[in-house]
TrEMBL record, chain A:
Family: Belongs to the binding-protein-dependent transport system permease family.
Organism: Mycetocola miduiensis
Extent of Low complexity compositional bias: 1-14
Subcellular location: Cell membrane
Segments forming domain ABC transmembrane type-1: 105-303
GO BP term, pick one: transmembrane transport
One CC-aspect GO term: plasma membrane
The protein's name in its UniProt record: Peptide/nickel transport system permease protein
Superkingdom of origin organism: Bacteria
Transmembrane feature ranges: 40-62, 109-133, 140-164, 170-191, 233-258, 281-303
Membrane topology: Multi-pass membrane protein
Pfam family, one: BPD_transp_1
UniProtKB/TrEMBL annotation, chain B:
Domain ABC transmembrane type-1: 109-343
Entry's Gene Ontology BP terms: transmembrane transport
Family note: Belongs to the binding-protein-dependent transport system permease family.
Subcellular location: Cell membrane
Keywords: Cell membrane, Membrane, Transmembrane, Transmembrane helix, Transport
UniProt-recorded name of the protein: Peptide/nickel transport system permease protein
InterPro entries, alphabetized: BPD_transp_1_N (IPR045621), MetI-like (IPR000515), MetI-like_sf (IPR035906)
Superkingdom of this protein's organism: Bacteria
Pfam families: BPD_transp_1, BPD_transp_1_N
Membrane topology reported for the UniProt record: Multi-pass membrane protein
Keyword Repeat in annotation: no
UniProtKB/TrEMBL annotation, chain C:
Family affiliation: Belongs to the ABC transporter superfamily.
Protein name: Peptide/nickel transport system ATP-binding protein
Primary residence: membrane
Protein topology in the membrane: Peripheral membrane protein
Record's subcellular location: Cell membrane
Protein source organism: Mycetocola miduiensis
Length: 354, 352, 562
């Protein structure tokens, strides 16, 4: 649980505004982190930013088009080693490796956005309703989602992509097929998380107090449960984004990818490069492989750091000197004074208690 | 709240059996859901025969084959028939090479089992101790190093890792074979062996030829390491997080206050309670291991279910694909059952 | 002077998310052999941090300065915890000083047998110790702390013991190496009051029979009066007063100490209630009437249902305050929740504001909800963390007074906040920006928003410090007098219930065993359980408490534990 720890003495004004800005996910955690954890978070953010920037500016950065086989000097040729014209050489199909790596970010980003958006909406809605109302619908959904959850995501994505496109791959159809396949795999994950959160929040005193008052279910669900249940979403989002990339590439590697002429996709390129490796050709496999690795690494580092920072047990803190800090007041004064808040003294006194 | 000790023990035993039985029965809806899901999805695009042979046969021939296989009947009839077949272990006949799917499953399943075994050995041997080391040195240099290791092994696509290993150890250093499960000679010996299991390590031990055993093992190193290290990275993270979590509990503090050393705290007091969630989550990783096995087998031409699956996928042989996927669903459901049972058995609280 | 423990000029600071916080500020304390030193204070006073420092158990986010000199029992060695090496510290822990924790179920490793855990401590100090001998020692110490049948129970897991027994085992672990000093951090806070009395007796034996000194950390003045020889009062990280227990209770010097002592609720303190006493209209139709009320929670997986409330009869008249007392598992909270329609009634009859709750449909009950207010126990979770206090307090108005415009709502919220003595400006704050006591008052404001005929308060003050509790109780009494609502006041604390209630009902394991006015129930209890409950409640007066202890011992002798 992420508890906001700005203490209270700030009145309205600029200080308070800064507090709000710091409450934003990621920004808040970046501020909160120290040492190795901050290093990991920053590294992850940088890698992720590079990936997004490459996707946005691919047409400007990439030396050639993703399906370009020739320029004014003639055909590129197949399996050409790296050279000034082709920094990472060319593939067995005669494409420029570097260009395909850069264009690949677009495909990856597109799939992440579509897949994660679709699965968040479906998964959150199902999880919320299922967790809040319970009953037989809940039980059925839980069994179904558990069954799907335990199943290898890649296999399910294969079956899905057969169902969607008959295993054929076309232009945007390919991206959409991949994205929807991944969505189906992810819905159970969001469902499980949101449902668990909903069930937990449902028994919190503030929801019960709304019930005592007679607030309608709809109002409780949206006003009280939904917003509190979705606090963990940035975290799952990052974990799923990395899994989306891996699944997309896995599909490509197994032959369910997007045709090289439709879009650039790293898994497809790796599949094509598989036979090159045995003959010692490294430049067709290492760049797209590294691209996947770095992208997933970046997103995972962000996710891991968010996870650690969200868990007070895993969160590191700065060391302080013994004489520093002010003593927090207890509330003996009539009316009570402000305590140090969740991260303050009361929190310390309670540390380790369940 | 005062429990009568002898009676409460007996009652716990009863609850345990009830839990085991209910958990066992839960396997069936799981398999049923997955079989249904796979069936529905695979049939949304039409019948398998058109998919596999549509571009090779004339319309008349196709219609004839479809009618012969019964794919022209209502989908519900086919569905219930399929359910019945699966229940009796009949997964149909492959379209591309005309073999009973169940035979394919047995022949290639052994290879996948062997690969999964190597991978699990590596994963346990590497992941669990390193996870405890990382928890012990939490937020210090060894921890940072191990975490980056774990994240990289999670982030790297298993086939890319495999390709890199191949490139380094097989192509450049030439110390290990590029692909396959053995040299031609080994494969031949294996075929000739009577009562072969298909698990080469076992069969090689039975043949008793050190040359063949060495050959089998050298072929297993790269695929085993590739898949094993991927899983090890996940185990490492899992162990680290859970051990750190238990290290922060009162009872570890209590043990510390009695003078138990930090090493013993991690080794005994924190590890045991952490084991229960670790085992539960490890069960879920079986799915990941199987997905990884498909990719690893394809990378190293390790002729197991995964390799065969990609072959059938290329051939658009969806009967075979469906059979393999359903079998894997059964394996996943059963392993998860076993893992849950283990987790409950080592938990003295047995809350069910 | 051979003090077991000397703390000199101790400073401790923590790194928190909110920046550095100083928890302990220039604290100096000493503990003599066979002495019980109580460190008393409210939350945030630094008492727990001080205790953990003695064992070197501070988390890595803490830094400290000063000296903690610890003498071993035989007086041969004296170590400064602040400077010893890790390995020395490890050897000191358990052998020279040990600790008893607040929550016994958290302090025992759930997956290891208690015998193993005791032996692990022994073997940590003597690696050569044989398994069999360690076990024999474990059995011996379990016998001494009063665990029945220790030979077989040494192989039990913690969950097979009751809460009180668990705490005995934790104490056994602390005693087994015969350390000169035991640090007990709120050792009875998590326990029911009858169990608390037993554990306090055991701790007294630790001193008398084992000759150990005890540092007792507590917020409960009754516990202090029961056990302590000397008392140090901590406030905001400093020791504000230190004196022998008798002196401190008789003649407190420091203003804070005086305030703290005055705030402790005592039985027979019904000043407010006597004034307020409206002519109880006994003829009027009661707000709540329970007849043979039975509430059972369905058992999981075919296990028998758990009966939380079993055949309870009572009524609440309009304007009457009924106090419901009981220990954990007595079913008191369940009754409160059933009246509010949060828990389903499974048998008998429960009439709330004229509506039968057994089998009631939410649709029919909803209009009545505007006449019921509820105050929850935990001030930390009773407000949606994402809404401001004003939005939370306005919630009942938005639901039931849809015709009210925003200005009227704002005005009403302002009035309510003022009624509970919170500044209007607090309306724009978020729940986490308020202290526990403030949040509990805001909770009261929300419960009163619709001017209810009935208020249910479920342990509204048990999570609060004693001085804050006093203020909240006072406010509650004032508002009740002013608004005249009927109330069900649920608490485990007899003294708290006594302050407010016109009528007290005592619950024990789902059954109502005694009911009557405060004077009847607490003045002359008829049921043996009530007698025991009353006698177990420690009073903040060492002289009176010593007398009560004798009474309790007699009770226990004649009335073996139910």
């Amino acid at each position: 649980m992420v508890t906001i720890t700005q203490t209270t003495t700030q009145g309205p004004g600029p200080a308070r505004k800064q507090g709000r800005w710091r409450r934003l996910p990621v920004v808040h955690q970046l501020h909160q982190s120290v040492g190795i954890q901050r290093g990991m978070l920053v590294a992850g953010l940088v890698l992720t930013a590079l990936f997004v920037l490459a996707a946005i500016f691919a047409p400007l950065i990439a030396p050639y088009g993703f399906s370009q086989l020739r320029d004014e000097d003639g055909a590129f040729g197949a399996q050409q080693p790296p050279s000034p014209e082709h920094l990472f050489g060319t593939t067995v199909g005669g494409y420029d490796v570097l260009s395909r790596v850069i264009w690949g970010t677009q495909t990856g980003l597109g799939v992440i956005v579509v897949a994660v958006l679709l699965s968040i909406f479906a998964g959150v809605a199902l999880g919320l309703v299922s967790g809040y109302f319970g009953g037989w619908l809940d039980r059925v959904l839980v069994v179904i989602c558990d069954a799907i959850y335990a199943f290898p995501t890649l296999l399910l994505a294969i079956v899905m992509s057969i169902a969607i496109s008959g295993g054929q791959s076309s232009l945007w159809g390919g991206i959409l097929a991949a994205a929807i396949s991944i969505t189906v795999v992810f819905i159970p994950q969001y469902f499980r998380v949101i449902r668990a959160e909903t069930v937990r929040i449902k028994s919190e005193a503030y929801v019960e107090s709304a019930k005592v008052v007679g607030t309608s279910n709809l109002r409780i669900m949206f006003r009280h449960v939904l917003r509190n249940a979705t606090r963990t979403l940035p975290l799952i989002f990052t974990l799923n984004a990395s899994e989306a990339i891996l699944t997309l590439a896995g599909l490509g590697f197994l032959g369910f990818g997007i045709e090289p002429t439709s879009a650039a996709e790293w898994g497809v390129d790796l599949k094509a490069a598989l036979s090159d490796v045995s003959s010692g050709i490294w430049w067709t496999s290492i760049p797209p492989g590294l691209a996947i690795l770095l992208t997933v690494l970046g997103v995972t580092l962000v996710g891991e750091s968010l996870n650690d920072l969200a868990d007070p047990r895993l969160r590191g803190r700065r060391a302080v000197s013994a004489a520093s800090g002010t003593v927090a007041e207890t509330s003996v004064v009539p009316g009570g004074t402000l305590s140090a808040g969740p991260g303050g003294l009361a929190g310390l006194e309670n540390e380790g208690r369940p | 709240m005062k429990p009568a000790p002898s009676r409460s023990r007996k009652r716990l035993g009863g609850n345990l059996w009830r839990y085991l039985i209910i958990r066992f029965l839960l396997i069936f809806p799981t398999i049923f859901i997955l079989v249904t899901l796979v069936f529905v999805l695979m049939r949304t695009t039409g019948d398998p025969i058109t998919a596999a042979l549509g571009d090779r046969l004339s319309a008349d021939q196709l219609a004839e084959r479809i009618a012969a296989a019964g794919y022209d009947r209502p989908i519900f009839v086919q569905y219930f028939e399929y359910l019945g077949q699966v229940f009796t272990g009949d997964f149909g006949t492959t379209l591309s090479d005309n073999r009973p799917v169940i035979e394919v499953l047995f022949v290639y399943g052994a290879a996948t089992l062997e690969l999964a075994f190597y991978a699990l050995v590596v994963a346990f041997a590497v992941g669990v101790p390193l996870g405890m080391v990382a928890a012990y040195f939490r937020d210090k240099v060894p921890d940072a190093f191990l975490r980056v290791f774990a994240i990289i092994f999670y982030a790297v696509p298993v086939y890319f890792a495999g390709m890199l290993m191949k490139l380094v150890f097989s192509v450049w250093l030439k110390v290990l074979p590029v692909s396959g499960r053995g040299t031609t000679n080994t494969e031949l010996e294996m075929q000739l062996l009577e009562g072969k299991t298909g698990i080469y390590l076992w069969d090689a031990l039975r043949i008793g030829d050190p040359g063949i055993l060495g050959d089998v093992l050298s072929h297993a190193v790269l695929p085993g390491l590739t898949l094993g290290l991927l899983t090890a990275g996940i185990f490492l993270r899992l162990v680290r997080t859970n051990v750190i979590g238990t290290l922060a509990t009162d009872y570890v503090d209590a043990a510390r206050s009695r003078g138990v050393s930090e090493y013993q705290l991690v080794r005994k007091h924190a590890y045991r309670p952490a084991l229960i969630p670790i085992i539960t989550v490890m069960g879920l990783q079986i799915a990941l291991l199987l997905g990884g096995a498909v990719l690893t087998e394809t990378t190293f031409e390790w002729k197991g279910l995964g390799f065969q699956l990609t072959e059938y996928l290329q051939a658009r042989d969806f009967v075979a694909v469906q059979g393999i996927v359903v079998l894997l669903a059964v394996i996943v459901a059963v392993t998860n059952f076993i893992v849950d049972v283990i987790a409950v058995l080592i938990d003295p609280r047995v809350r069910y | 002077m051979s003090d077991v423990l000397q703390i000199r000029n101790l400073d401790v600071s923590f790194a928190t998310d909110a920046g550095a916080v100083k928890a302990v500020d220039q604290v100096s304390l000493t503990v003599a052999p066979r002495e019980v030193l109580a460190i008393v204070g409210e939350s945030g006073s630094g008492k727990t941090v001080t205790a953990k420092t003695i064992l070197g158990l501070l988390p890595e986010t803490a830094t400290r300065a000063g000296a903690i000199l610890l003498r071993s029992r035989d007086g041969k060695s004296e170590n400064d915890i602040a400077t010893v090496t890790k390995d020395q510290l490890r050897r000191i822990r358990g052998a020279d000083v040990s600790m008893v924790f607040q929550e016994p179920s958290a302090a025992l490793n759930p997956v290891l047998t208690i015998g193993w855990q005791i032996a692990a401590g022994l073997r940590a100090h003597d690696p050569a110790l044989k398994r069999k001998d360690a076990r024999a020692q474990a059995v011996e110490i379990l016998t001494k702390v009063g665990i029945p049948d220790p030979e077989s129970r040494v192989d039990y897991y913690p969950h097979q013991f009751s809460g009180g027994q668990k705490q005995r085992i934790v104490i056994a672990m602390a005693l087994v190496l015969n350390p000169g000093l035991i640090v007990a951090d709120e050792p009875t806070t998590a326990l029911d009051v009858t169990v608390q009395a037993e554990i306090l007796d055991l701790l007294r034996r630790c001193r008398d029979e084992f000759g150990a000194s005890i540092v007792l950390i507590t917020h409960n003045m009754g516990v202090v009066a029961d056990l302590a020889d000397r008392v140090a009062v901590m406030y905001q990280g400093r020791v504000v007063e230190e004196a022998a227990a008798l002196t401190l209770f008789a003649h407190p010097q420091n203003d804070y100490t005086k305030k703290l002592l005055a705030a402790v609720p005592r039985i027979g303190q019904r000043i407010e209630a006597a004034e307020r006493k409206a002519p109880a209209d006994t003829d009027a139709e009661p707000v709540v009437r329970a007849e043979k009320l039975r509430i059972a929670y369905p058992g999981r997986l075919g296990r028998p249902d758990f009966v939380a409330v079993d055949g309870v009869d009572f009524t609440i008249a309009p304007g009457e305050v009924v106090g419901l007392v009981g220990e954990s598992g007595s079913g008191k909270t369940t009754i409160g929740r059933a009246i509010a329609g949060l828990t389903t009634v499974t048998g008998g009859s429960l009439t709330v504001l004229g509506t039968e709750m057994n089998g009631v449909k939410e649709r029919r009950f909803r209009p009545l909800r505007s006449s019921i207010g509820f105050v929850f126990q935990d001030p930390g979770s009773s407000f949606n963390p994402l809404l401001t206090i004003a939005e939370c307090v306005a919630e009942p108005l938005k639901v039931h007074r849809k015709s009210m415009d925003q200005r009227a709502v704002t005005q009403r919220v302002g009035e309510l906040l003022e009624a509970v003595q919170l500044p209007k400006a607090f309306g724009s704050r978020y729940p986490h920006e308020l202290s526990g006591g403030q949040r509990q008052r805001a909770s009261l404001a929300r419960a009163l928003a619709l001017d209810p005929a009935l208020l249910i308060a479920d342990e509204p003050t048990s999570a609060l410090d004693v001085s804050v509790q006093a203020r909240v109780l006072e406010l509650f009494a004032e508002l009740q007098k002013e608004l005249g609502f009927a109330a069900l006041f649920i608490s485990h604390d007899l003294a708290v219930v006594d302050i407010l209630s016109d009528k007290i009902a005592v619950l024990y394991r789902g059954k109502l065993i005694e009911e009557g006015t405060g004077a009847e129930v607490l003045g002359a209890p008829k049921d043996p359980y009530t007698q025991r409950l009353l006698a177990s409640l420690p009073v903040p007066d060492p002289v009176a408490q010593a007398e009560r202890r004798r009474v309790l011992a007699d009770l226990r002798y004649t009335e073996p534990t139910a």
